[in-house]
Amino acid sequence: MSGRFTLSFDPSMRVVAAGWYGEFGANPSLPAPTGDLALADISTLQLQANAAMQHASITVDQAAGLAVFEFEFDWGPAGMVPSLNVDSNGHTNIAALLLEAPAQPMADAVTVLGSPAQTAALGTESSTYMLCTSGYCGVNPVPEPQVWAMVMASLGVIGWRVRGRGKAA
Fold this sequence. Notes:
Layout: E1 2-9, E2 14-20, E3 55-61, E4 66-72, E5 95-100, E6 110-112, H1 116-122, E7 129-131, H2 145-168
Antiparallel strand pairs: 1-4, 1-6, 1-7, 2-5, 3-4
């Protein structure tokens, strides 16, 4: 299983943290948020990746407003079978970008770069892609980029809201 998520965010938003959830994190026993992202616990975001990853990196360019998450796992013949906090559709969240909002509200905080057409044309050279060549990687062997876009954007918004509530308290 390998993939890349390229997020574009408003550079006026400060990146507070970027990391991994659940089995993708250094401590795979920590839960990952499921589909109900309003209940996400940002304290389970892990800055270090699972040691079993063959490759894991998060590159943030604050000035350009870009964050790139890359990963590669070899889960073996069984493939990836998430075991913690999986929703009824078999979905779990794997990573998040925690942003601190500027004083002025914005229309679109985070977008995912790359389209299905770009992925079809460029494969692993696309801005955003996901590959699963064997075993189980979820309901669809290759999730639609729009699904990952919604997950990542939602996690960014949750992080932004959680950070805002912490400052207000």
